Amino acid sequence: MEQVKILEMLALILGFYMAWNIGANDVANAMGTSVGSKALTLGKAVFLAAILEFSGAFFIGSTVSQTIQKGIVDPAVFQNDPTSFVLGMLGALLATGALLQIASYFALPISTTHSIVGAVLGFGLLIGGVEAIQWGEMAWIALSWVVSPLISGLIAYSIFSLIQRKILFSLNPTEATRKLAPLFVFLCFSVGFLSLFFHGLQQLDFDFSFTTAFSLAITCGLAAAIVSLFFIQRNHKTTLQPIDGFHPTQAARLEKALHHLQRVQVTNQNEAYNEQISNLVGELKNLNDVVRKNLPFSNPTTHYLGVEKIFVYLQIISACLVAFAHGTNDVSNAIGPVAAIFGVLKTQEVSAQSVIPSWLLALGGAGIVIGLATWGWRVIETIGKKITELTPTRGFAAEFGAATTILLASKLGLPISSTHALVGAVFGVGLARGMRALNLQMLREIALSWIVTIPICATFSIGAFYLLKFLLIR
User: How many CB atoms lie within 10 A of CB 1?
Assistant: First the structure.
């Protein structure tokens, strides 16, 4: 009985340690783009993440946790040796937490999902052999790791391309933003509330059908859009009045022509035209400077400032959506093994079914929030500043793409990498601006860290298993 208590206490400590490191490394996915684009200060980001991460973990976190518990190794293989299963899960938590702490020190946004799956895979192969691994489920999980950044990147690319066409390249960007912003608010709130209402309130004994959940989500989205419409109309008014017979839209057209030509310059791959395009850009820029100096009305560039000012609010909404989505998916990486350990210690059997208590979900959520507050700024800097330059418009597109992908995966019970989803989304936004807007060297370093994560964590897990077995089993 004393040994059982020790193992339970150790499971809670290592689970919290794992959750702390998830917060330090992975919650940057939720808030990195917002801090990078200066939509939020680090303090405000931590406050919002604390509420949304905890809510996502508590209400929806159990679905993916069950996959971590029983979807990777076959519980039947360990029926005759439940103690090894417990030590293996403890070793997986210890190994993954240590690797994440090292990665956070070097400011690398590695995948916590890769880490815990690699760790569980490692001890499963060591103890049970090849037959202990549920390869069909592993193939499905691995496929989701490839598909998730592609989907999030495609969504982010589409959203930012829409923003470019309908807002940034319009004659009056601020006015175009005022018209389209409620649509983006509607999308964010509808996606978030749909994930919450559809099998997301089971902890409170509420469970809606998809039709009811969809109807409620659309209603909430429309209500939020209407509120945003009144807010934007009241606080972001724009007027363009002609002065001395010269309408400001003429200056705006000149500004847009310059931006279009600069975009051609960035994306041009034919070196034969580089000099001609550069000369055109130079001449148009000089003309634009003359117009801006000699006209008595405000610089048309201020319309872009107005756009970004409105998108600051939109990006805060999308950041909250990503934080909620991250909590739903990644808390499982910490509490899935803990729930499995408690189930085995209670019944002395390795079961495919293990109830996840609400207090354990709360513990995981709290650990994630504390990790973000104490050390999350390191990886936030990498996500927010070093892949591509981010503004509120770009950050919003990236966050919406990532959040939608993560929430979909959470509903399917897939432990996808939120790091993959967010980096894929940031890449999609950068791609919409042209390949030259991307820091490909940083992307290569991140991709390499993803590739080596699984074998390294599997090796760490095996070593941690033997260490715990030596210390705890006499």
Answer: 5
